[in-house]
Amino acid sequence: MINPLRGMKDLTFEESERFEHIINTASTIAKRYGYGYIETPILEETALFKRSVGESSDIVGKEMYQFIDKGENDVCMRPEGTAGVVRAFISAKLDRQPVKQKFYYYGPMFRYEKPQKGRLREFHQFGCESFGEGSVYEDFTIITMIAQIFNALGIGYELQINSLGCKICMPKYKETLVSSLTEIKEELCEDCNRRIGTNPIRVLDCKNDTCQTLLVESPKLKNYLCEECDPDFKKLKELLDQEGIKYTVNDNLVRGLDYYSKTAFEFVSSEIGAQSAIAGGGRYDRLVEFLDGKPTPAVGFALGIERIMELVKMPEKEAEGYYMGAMTPEAIPSLLKLATKKRLTDKVTVEYSSKGFKSHMKGVDRSNAQYAVLIGEDELKNGTLWIKDLETKEERVIAINEL
Ligand code: HAM
């Protein structure tokens, strides 16, 4: 027997219904906010992710599904969606147009991580990317949209926010941070020591308890924000307060991808174990430029579908459509003809084996239909059918073409 690969899984029956419900709910809400659907390839040039997600990130450093294809191209299965959408935005020369563009997408992402509960090697994201709007109002609007999606799915969350500064304030902060980290270098873990040289702000979200204790005294980015970033972050907090969206400011929230600046945020759930982030995102005003496009401010997020599937409250299933069955085999062709016609507008389940009334009624229960339609010998002779409304319990015999 061949099984799926480690960290990958099939979605069937009840699970796939949850999956679809999340995608449908999120897409409907994203469209209300002006987002249009975009589909980009799963396979991209490896250089795309190195230059966007960043060489120093765990994703690029350790987790890429990277290989050389038959044409000697260095390619990679996408570990996330933003890089591909930015590449598509530039490929279509949308960076040369004055119009603001908003895209939503969903699909599989691949990271060669150590699988555990809530952490897969193939997982799915729903994401949104907004291009051309540099105002913090857009950051607020995106956070509000995610909150609305979670509310619609019946999911509780905690929101954490931070500001990562911009090209003006970040370098000054990094310099101060590096000299403070160098003083405690000996006591920090191996990963942190490496990061001091590659990407020092990633030291802040080290999961090692000793490192975290040592970091309490380290300089905080919020005290270094520039004349633009500081008031923007204050404005974001005021708007969230006004909207009644609760949040905590997490000074150590730096995100695991290198492209962020200014607003960064994460939605976490306390109900799904250690892998608690259910959505993450932020502003990435310099990424379009890094990938050779015209400088364009941008902000976005992605939801982790599998983690949300654990939490989502599914709406009650309402009875719908028709169950059609025959009590004599000769009636089946008539039922099939009727079903094809009815399926232009309604859900129809047809039972192909002819059987007695009682067994059909069991089938009706399983199908969750609103109407049961049966044709027996008498009905076939008379060109009629027996129909029962399972809600009102009303039963009738009517001409076939009356249905
Ligand atoms: P991310 O935080 O790496 O951000 O991923 C977003 C979400 O994907 C996470 O919050 C989590 O729910 C889910 N996720 C990540 N890794 C796994 C995994 N191994 N197994 C299951 N679920 C996982 C990004 O990917 C950015 N592209 C988000 C973004 C869009 N920022 C701006 N625009």
UniProtKB/TrEMBL annotation:
Keywords, sorted A to Z: Aminoacyl-tRNA synthetase, ATP-binding, Cytoplasm, Ligase, Nucleotide-binding, Protein biosynthesis
Reaction(s) catalysed by this chain's protein: tRNA(His) + L-histidine + ATP = L-histidyl-tRNA(His) + AMP + diphosphate + H(+)
Alphabetical list of CDD domains matching this protein: HisRS-like_core
Domain of life: Bacteria
Domain annotation Aminoacyl-transfer RNA synthetases class-II family profile: ranges: 29-329
Matching InterPro entries: aa-tRNA-synth_II (IPR006195), aa-tRNA-synth_II/BPL/LPL (IPR045864), Anticodon-bd (IPR004154), Anticodon-bd_dom_sf (IPR036621), His-tRNA-ligase (IPR015807), HisRS-like_core (IPR041715), HisRS/HisZ (IPR004516)
EC number: 6.1.1.21
Enzyme class: ligase
GO terms assigned for molecular function: histidine-tRNA ligase activity
UniProt subunit comment: Homodimer.
Family from the record: Belongs to the class-II aminoacyl-tRNA synthetase family.
PANTHER family the record matches: HISTIDINE--TRNA LIGASE, MITOCHONDRIAL-RELATED, HISTIDYL-TRNA SYNTHETASE
Protein name: Histidine--tRNA ligase
